[in-house]
Amino acid sequence: AADAGFIEISNDGGFSWFLQNDAFIRNGYPNDVLYGTFAIPSLRGFSGSSNDQFIDSYVDLSAYAGQEIQVRFRFGSDADGVISTNPGPGWYVDDYEIMDVKSYSATACVYNGSDELQNCTDVISTIVNSDGLSGVVEGDLDQFTLNIFPNPANELLNIALTSKTFESAAISMISVDGKTVLSKQANIGPDSKVIRLETNHLPTGFYVVQIQTASGIITEKITIE
Q1: How far apart are CA 154 and CA 151, in angstroms?
Q2: Which residues contact 12 (CB under 8 A, 6 or more apart)?
Q3: Which pairs from 40-48 meet CB under 8 Å and 24+ separation?
Q4: Collapsing DSSP states into helix, strand and coil, what is residue 152?
Q5: Which DSSP letter does residue 41 get?
Q6: 73 CB contacts (<8 Å, ≥6 apart)?
Q7: How far is CA 51 from the centre of its chain?
Q8: CA 208 and chain centroid, separation
Q9: What is the pLDDT of residues 137-177, one digit of tens each?
Q10: What are phi and psi for residue 36, nearest 5 degrees?
Q11: Model confidence, pTM
């Protein structure tokens, strides 16, 4: 790839930066980067199309535990002078968070009646946020009141939502790999509105509920059991 981005960490106030390459727990760099873009040999980075979906990536920062660090997202294009007739949109970085997580890797195997191994899945990594669940509001902090219950949920998720003004809300549930698995429209206002989402068909795990209005965006982490 000629155009790509990657992540670097500094623990000395920005004097030196360390490329995060082998520290990814999930969804690391997908492609090699041409030498001419950064003049860094054997470099890999984020490039290519994600089909308009944000993809979650996890980096293990345990090597910097107890230290004050800086994080930077570095993006570059090669300087060959050729302007593409169909240029890409560039690299978009959405929410990022420092989390206290645990990563578990496992595989599932199927045996026949004689206990003979038939087939096994690839290794699957499950990431558990051990630091609890937190939410984010972008916009006026006093505009909304939100209560999501039960959390963890099983068959049904209730979203009790109010807004100081009458407005339309786009409600989405997003999986950890950035895919929208549920979506719903609702009109909200000063009176509490309860929106119900059927979640019994969703795999267990962590999800993000995103509520977007003209006044702002609310995101809240939830768990499906």
Answers
A1: 9
A2: none
A3: 43/4, 43/6, 43/19, 44/6, 45/1, 45/4, 45/5, 45/6, 46/4, 46/5, 46/6, 46/91, 47/1, 47/3, 47/4, 47/5, 48/1
A4: coil
A5: T
A6: 5, 6, 7, 91, 93
A7: 15
A8: 9
A9: 555 557 888 888 888 888 899 999 888 889 999 999 888 76
A10: -70, -15
A11: 0.48
Six-digit token string for 116? 């003979």
The amino acid that residue 132 corresponds to is G
Q: In this structure, are residues 223 and 206 in contact, taking their beta carbons and an 8 Å threshold? A: yes
Q: Which tokens belong to 90?
A: 């560039």
Tally of CB atoms within 10 A around 84: 9
Residue 53: DSSP 8-state = -
Amino acid at 61: L
Token pair for residue 63?
């090597």
Per-residue model confidence as pLDDT tens digits over 2-59? 888 999 999 999 999 999 988 887 888 999 988 888 888 888 999 888 887 888 888 8
pLDDT in the model for residue 100: 66
Tokens standing for 113?
């009646």
